[in-house]
Amino acid sequence: MTSVIGFAFLAACHSDNSMDTLVPHSDLTQGVMDVYSLVFWWTLFLFVLVQGGLIYIVMRFRSKGDHSAVPEQVHGNPTMEMGWTVAPVFILMSFAIPTVQFIFKTQAPAAADAVKVNALGKQWWFEFTYPDLGVVTGNEMHVPVGKEVSVRLQSDNVIHSFWVPQLMGKRDMIPGKVNTIKFTANKIGLFLGQCAEYCGDSHALMKFRVFVDSPEDFDKWVATQKSDAVVENAEVKATGEALFATNCASCHQIRGTAAAGMIGPDLTHVGSRSTIAAGLLDNNPESLKRWLSDPQEVKLGAKMILNKKLTDQEIKSLSDYLLSLK
Ligand code: CUA
After folding, report:
1. For the whole model, what pTM was predicted?
2. Ligand 1 shell residues, CB under 6 Å
3. What is the pLDDT of residue 27?
4. Nearest residue (CA) to ligand 1, atom 1
């Protein structure tokens, strides 16, 4: 009973941006849902059939009155035995065949014109590179609606697992191995992702976002991301670039400036992202202040090491600079 109430509560928690696996928004998750539904309805039907039969037999054949009489003895019934052997074979085949067909479909090579994304699992964030489009970004992936996307999953450290419940099932990112996953999103919007394989201190904080854009918005996003960083305010630019060069440039890159570090996320257009620290905090001055004051306080074990403690004024200047990198 408790579990029934629990499920009812969970069902009530559904919202459109949630990580509810029962709300498919791509061909891949829809296919999983179809197989799941088939198994669910067969299971429910068999449960009712077996429990109904059991209740009927208990009622119909229960001992009445004379407890000493021996009931009629039956030895074997070939028709029934054939029936309960053959029927389960057909029932199992009815979901084994669609399941195997769907597995093969997911393993087929991606379409030649699919949008290609290389996703690299880091501790604890995701790097997204679009090799055909010349775009590199971190933790926020954009894809066009209605178009196949093929993601190559890799890791250069430990095993992670790439998971966007409403767009794609979990698939591992394994060092020394390339896994792929392909999907076509059918709804414009924001979809939340999460690393699904324990990978160290901040595994639970290793989130990411997938934005499904209209084709026009996606093209616009690509054009912006490809270009170098532009900061309009000359003072913000000069102060920010100098602070960044001293404190951040050995790990982070900002294309169009001298900063070319390759360890942390590429920050060329960090101001255009909705979150920082792998989807943990909204991207705004308050969050940047927290992050730049003490990254480990925000994200346990974060690999970002500050050479020296930044002053409030330095944090303010850096944050103004980073947020202007649209
Ligand atoms: Cu990456 Cu868990």
Report:
1. 0.84
2. 121, 124, 160, 195, 197-199, 203, 206
3. 95
4. 160
